Predict the structure.
Amino acid sequence: MDKPLYQRRPLGTLAFTVLLSVCCGSAKPASAQSALSENNGQNSVHGIVVNSLTHEPIGRALVYSPDNRFATMTDSEGRFEFTFAQTETDKNREDEGSPNISGSRVTANCVDSSCTSVRSSTSSYSFRRNGPDQLMARKPGFLNDPGGIGIQNLQLDTSRDITIPLTPEALVVGRVVLPTSEASDTIQLELYRRQVQEGRGRWFPAGSASSKSNGEFRFAELSAGIYKLLTRELMDRDPLVFDPRGQLYGYPPIYFPNATDFAAAQTIQLVAGQTFQADISLVRHAYYPVKVAVANAPVRSGIRIVVSVQGHRGPGYALGYNYRDQRIEGSLPNGNYTLEASSFGPNAASGLLNISVNGSALEGPRMTMVPNGSISVNVKEEFTSGDEINAPGMIIDSGPPNVAARGPRRYLNVRLEPADDFGQERTASLRPPSGPEDDSLAIDGVQPGRYWVRVNTSRGFVASITSGTTDLQHHLLVVGLAGSSAPIEITLRDAAAQVEGTIQGATASGTDGAATAPNGVVSGSANTTAHVYFVPLSDSGGEFKDLWVAPDGKFGPQQMPPGTYRVLAFDHPQEALEYRNPEAMRAYDAKGQLVRLVAGQKEHLHLQLISSSE
């Protein structure tokens, strides 16, 4: 006969976590919002673990509390239950209708195949009942990151089960084929994922894998998204054909399916639970020695070498740096490359050189490293209010400890964000003040490159950003060697518009003011996940804003910089909204509402809710 679910042994090595909070608050057992049901002096928590895509039950999943007091496996129908004794404190609290602030708590030790309750003392206040405050679930083949499916801070209707949804993993599998009948060497592969940061998409490493002796490889535990796949370089060291004094051969990177640089690689669109087959065939090429002397290299400083194909930044190729001989060394196949060198530390320097490899060793080119430059920042305040801080936001302290920030430095921060998909290491921001009397603003250590200028202020808003004749709100800042650039001029104003509004269809629903989630779980307080986004048009002024929406579907009043906006209301947060990409935002041309805001204007908006499925 099977043992009760709550007595089954927990499983210790599983690979997925979804957080579901089960609040025990001050609700009485008779309340429809109680997370616990009572039966002859015992409480129980029960529910089901399901596949978030198919809604089918998941058997043999581990359900446990994060404090490790409770753990059990689901049965073949995905169901679980925890049963535990009700304490005297719990009874008193229920009789009085007040939270448990006793200095004691009850824990459960799972030994062998049973869980027993043990009382332990603590000096801190505890609002816990005898049962779990939170539950989590995991199982191999499902993601560690729930992607927002788990709902926190819940109270449950006693007529409902706790539903914990798990998202199935996606996979990228395939085989690397070498142009030989012999078993392949181990091939290193890398996967990159497209992610949106501050409204702009970038590529980030998503994992690496090694092929087996038969060339097969596997990337697991992937979430839905856009990916690119490539192989790393591999030198041919086959002892049957390798001659250390003769011609070198190797396998250059291949960007799936058969591109020669990262930009031209095919994107892999994964959905949850999908298995994508990606086979790659390598081509053997001759490699030639490369030696590039480096002038003015900083002494005793780390130097990073980046090799790009035809000037397109991206992973794949690599060269090293010889500190003793002060030169860049390695080998490359025929092609055109851009070499970038950058050092670290207070005297950081950068170098840039274009080279061509054409059927023979390359030796003789020289790269000169130049100290990174400094760009001054000038701020013009056009404030009508005498308030030092008159807009929501945090005061930004860009100075070191014990140095009082003064003037714009007290509420302003400026940073340079690299415009290409790679090169995040080139990000730079305002330097700290040199002392209490230093009010100057400057960005030091700026490497060559193209940048977006990002300004954060907790006073007023940014009316304009320029460098010479370049409008930096809509165009890139181009920095040459030595950080050569005209000063960045910033104008701040506080004469804003005021916006408020209502979202149709965004009001909460449920029992006793509780909102019902799609998986049938009832939230303990009325709420809505709707979000309102103010996206300035590409040829307009203004700043992007993400506004919180109240449970009744209302938002604001909110101070907004003047400009023309497309206002979008979604039923869920849009973490992948590329609001800085005009091409990506064209998908919303027929959605939302266009509004032009001017200083002093008061605007009330009525928005239609956009479903995430649209």
The mean pLDDT is 78.
